[in-house]
Amino acid sequence: MTAPDPTKPRPVLRFIWHYVEMVIAMFAGMLLLDPLWGLVLPPDTGTDVDVLVMAADMVIGMTVWMRVRRHHWAAVAEMGVAMFAPFLILLVPYWFGVLAGHVVMSAGHVLMFVFMALAMLRRRAEYTRHSHRLTINPKWAKRAAVVLVALLVPGAVAAVNTIGKFADLYERREGTVSVKPVPRTHDPAKPTVALLTSSEGTNVADLLGPYEVLAGTGRVNTYIVAAGPGTAPLTGGLDLVPDLTFEQLADVLTDHNDSLDAIMIPALQQPPAAEHTAINDWLRRQSAAGTLTVSVCRGAQAFAESGLLDGRTATSHWLRLAGLRAAFPQVKWVAGTRYVDDGNVISTAGVLSGVDGALRILERLVDGDTARAAADRVHWRHYSPFTAGSIPESAVEPLDAVVGINSSYLTGPSTIGVQVVEGVGELELASAFISYTEHAMVGRTLAIGEAAVRSRHGLTFVPRASTAAGVGRLLVPGLDAFRRKVAGTGGEVRPEYLHTTEEFAFDPVVRDIARTYDVRTALWTAKTLEYPVMDVELRGSAWPWVATAVPLVLALLGAAAAIGSFALVRRLRTRTTTQPA
């Protein structure tokens, strides 16, 4: 009787290892293929399509690896059926409204792992008696290594640059400030609207756009509120001092025997747990008291987390809807509209749709004439009185890769100074801090000023630098600043005035991006702002050609380094073998 070879793995261990290999392969397929589907499928495909696409990605990854390991086609086909079957079975009750989308996702994965194990047990000899050894041609291995290094170099540069730019968007200032907000006179005869901020960061356009629309009327008590004291960082490093905390707002309302009429929730960076709880509790209390609650763009996420959107119809930014549908299936998410008015809750689409949300508040709490005058005041030409205007149902397209190229490889000055000037319009300020950073991704902004600044309608901002030393560009937002020819603060960079005529604040910014960088970046910026620019003339280079060439050069350098390394190793080996003993 032959004793078992202790150096060979036991059948059970080989079986388990095969299972682990296929799990890794199917997740690799999902991670690698999912971005490609985004180029051809619309962003809001629905839970059933998302489930089937995900299952297909995993089956493809598993199939490729099983064939590499030389498994028989019959075993590969059975494994594919085992992986697909649970999702197909669970989708039937989902289509009849019996199961929620998140149940299909979670239960489908659990059953898939079980079915995979059963398929392997059915053909256990396939996974226990054959090692399916992998043979690799050394020549092809070297070629693969060269390709890998060639891709790794531009990939590493892209990762470092992109992570750095995104991490910098809502970076909090060092230390604290003692600046106090401008005291407000509360008029109980006017409706009161509170706009929410987070200590971890708030979208500057979601917040300041609606604020200027509301405060500019003089018909509304408008406050920026926070859960606690301290500055609120806005997109691009613009620091705002909120008007009131939740408790201070309650005191003001109590003193005037008044109540809160509306809340606006912009896109908030995830706050600490205690603040997150405080925000949710405050939103629920206000909603229970009958307060109209309005979300702007990705602010719909904070809204949905509070539970106040359950069973309601809502919208959000087109890039966020797919994720929101998966995370909050109890909400009826829709696209293609500026806002959704569902009783005491209103939700708006992306970024500049917050202007429409503010105008809708004016229609409901004041009157239509005030809303029309407010739209004219800020030159918002997309106002649809008493109805939600339609907007394109955008999707990611191949040319939208421009933002990835900008965030990864854009050359030239990366720091853009923004002179924060006394009396600047809130929309004018927002246009400078969000467009070049979060949307165009052409650089980081730096708020410059010698002291705290008050905006046109009384908000308080604290700059982070006193001079423009070290910046690549110095932008001065605000038509009033242009008319007064406000000079830049220090440095040798010539100030560039963004706003030189009476028009909507984002128009000259989009034109500047096209002229200074390229038209495709300007179009992407407008698309993600959800701002139609068909009537805005854009002139400039069609594409960021220099930035596009950078990854190609990096790939060539990486390939050359890999080839040179192999040649050096080969020469050293040859020299060693030819030396006399």
UniProtKB/TrEMBL annotation:
InterPro entries reported in the protein's UniProt record: Class_I_gatase-like, DJ-1/PfpI, INH-QAR
Domain of life of the native organism: Bacteria
Pfam family, any one: DJ-1_PfpI
Key words of the record: Membrane, Transmembrane, Transmembrane helix
Ranges annotated as spanning the membrane: 12-31, 51-68, 75-96, 102-122, 143-164, 542-569
Domain DJ-1/PfpI: start-end pairs: 195-363
Name of the protein in question: DJ-1/PfpI domain-containing protein
